[in-house]
Amino acid sequence: xxxxxxxxxxxxxxxxxxxYRDDVWNAKYLRGFGWEDLMGGVRAEEREREERVRVGVxxxxxxxxxxxxxxxxxxxxxxxKKKREGKREKVKERRVEDEGLVGxxxxxxxxxxxxxxxxxxxxxxxxxxxxxxxxxxKIF
Length: 140
Description:
- The protein is an all-alpha fold.
- The chain has a two-stranded antiparallel sheet.
- A hairpin with a 2-residue loop joins strand 1 and strand 2 (about 105).
- It has three helices and two strands.
């Protein structure tokens, strides 16, 4: 069967209407070589191709995840930057209010007022000479 098929097509032109019609068949019977041997090679090639696809998919997934992490990081940094800028603006506004400046010029009639803390009870120490109390009073 296989020997008869090889003898029939070996050295014949392929014929037909296709691109290969003038090509010649070159067939040889390989003793001990079965269909499973041939299909084993084809299946091995299919497995290799599928593995390359899987590796590519994993690599693409990893790249996509890294890109998304970078985007998230950029959003966080952008938020931090906006927050810092907002704080700087508030500090700048407070500074302008404290100095009484409007547009870089001093406001007329602006007076800075500071809240004063009340003095707490002062205890006079009895039994010290008046000179010591006077000197300590000037210091404290």
